[in-house]
Design goal:
Elements lengths: L2 E5 L2 E2 L2 E2 L2 H16 L2 E8 L3 H6 L7 E6 L8 H15 L3 E5 L2 H13 L3 E12 L2 E8 L4 E5 L6 E5 L16 E3 L31 E5 L6 H14 L3 E4 L1 H5 L20 E5 L5 H4 L7 E6 L6 H4 L2 E4 L2 H13 L1
Parallel strand pairs: 1-4, 1-6, 4-5, 5-11, 6-10, 7-10, 12-13, 12-14, 14-15, 15-16
Antiparallel strand pairs: 2-3, 7-8, 8-9
The protein binds flavin-adenine dinucleotide (FAD).
Length: 323
């Protein structure tokens, strides 16, 4: 029987929707093995986020709310996860595949001497064990793997697991006692650079509009890519070509070495479709490509393709959408 601990993710108290996909994964495993899952949320001032987690059938929502956990420092968070996973006798610890999980979960796995698999897209019970599918080589290879050991750490791709359906009954919320004096303190918090633009995060947004080398400067990027994203209520992204040329910040890069996004709609404007870029957006439901080269590889994965100059097509699209 599985006993799963899902690690919730939030941004300064705002729940990240990818958490719900990790809970969806847990629910799938429980359905196959008649187990149960708990959710652990760590931070300070997280009661609203914790509350919103209670409606999805978890056995409990465990809340480690402490000023010592205000910033997601890996050493402190891993310490608490270690404690809770032992106390719960967890057989799996699961998080959404994200920068947060990449930072924290391997450290917690090491404390518990457990193995870890990242980027899981499928799970199947096989006897008392599990078989997982995970993506490799920028999404070009899907590996089928097993993980040894009684406790397994996993990150799951949000696009691969639907959020669990809501339940009428709320999961109990259980406070987790945090002894700040016992927490490790090798990592010191220096500062946080918060995004100032009012646009959603590309990993959370339903629509992402990305620009590529076709865009000549920052002003054009804001007018065309930002403008189209704004009329669609979406996030902006970019190819590495624009990051390398200093037109967009690194935080906007989508791809193998950038963010992995899986929105309902991804618009690639003036992006050729290199495999490293596609590794970050292939899981999108509907891909629209605008490129003046009809042979561009992006058209091979696009659901809708427009052979056009972005400098003409995008302002026209914005104008029509505004109407
Ligand atoms: C190890 C490694 C990791 C990498 N990681 C990433 C990553 O995470 N993300 C990423 O994006 N890349 C990554 N890259 C780089 C990747 O290989 C490509 O170089 C990059 O994605 C190309 O960006 P692009 O499509 O914007 O530019 P280009 O490949 O130059 O394509 C520009 C496209 O715009 C079209 N175009 C030009 N002008 C117009 C116009 N006016 N109207 C319409 N279309 C026009 C052209 O036809 C062309 O198809 C990585 C590379 C390596 C080696």
């Amino acid at each position: 029987m599985s006993k799963i601990l899902v690690i919730a993710e939030h941004d300064a108290g705002q729940l990240k929707l990818a958490t719900l996909s990790a809970m969806g994964f847990a629910q799938q495993v429980c359905a196959q093995t008649s187990g149960s899952y708990d959710v652990l949320i760590l931070g300070e001032g997280i009661s609203d986020a914790a509350e919103s987690l209670r409606a999805y059938g978890a056995a409990s929502v465990m809340v480690a709310d402490s000023p010592a956990l205000k910033e997601p420092l890996a050493d402190k968070y891993a310490f608490v996860i270690d404690d809770v996973a032992r106390a719960q006798k967890a057989t799996m610890v699961v998080g959404a595949a994200s920068t947060f999980s990449k930072d924290i979960l391997p450290r917690a796995a090491a404390l518990l001497d457990a193995g870890m698999i990242s980027d899981v897209i499928e799970v199947r019970a096989e006897g008392d064990d599990f078989v997982f599918k995970r993506v490799l080589y920028a999404g070009n290879v899907i590996a089928t793997v097993k993980l040894e050991g009684a406790l397994k750490f996993l990150t799951v791709r949000p696009a691969a697991f639907a959020p669990p359906s809501k339940t009428d009954e709320l999961s109990p919320a259980t406070p987790v006692a945090v002894d700040a004096g016992k927490l490790p303190s090798q990592i010191k918090f220096v500062g946080r650079e918060a995004k100032v633009a009012g646009r959603p995060d590309s990993t959370e947004a339903r629509v992402v509009v990305s620009g590529g080398r076709a865009i000549k400067n920052g002003e054009d990027f804001e007018r065309l890519i930002g403008g189209l994203a704004d009329v669609l209520g979406g996030a902006v992204g970019s190819s590495r070509a624009l990051v390398d040329s200093g037109i967009t910040p690194n935080s906007l890069q989508v791809g193998q070495t950038g963010k992995v996004v899986a929105p309902e709609l991804y618009i690639a404007a003036g992006i050729s479709g290199a495999i490293q870029h596609m590794a970050g957006m292939k899981d999108t439901k509907v891909i629209v490509a605008i490129n003046k080269d009809s042979e561009a590889p992006i058209f091979e994965v696009a659901d809708y393709g427009l052979v056009a100059d972005v400098y003409q097509a995008v302002p026209e699209l914005i104008g029509k959408l505004k109407k």
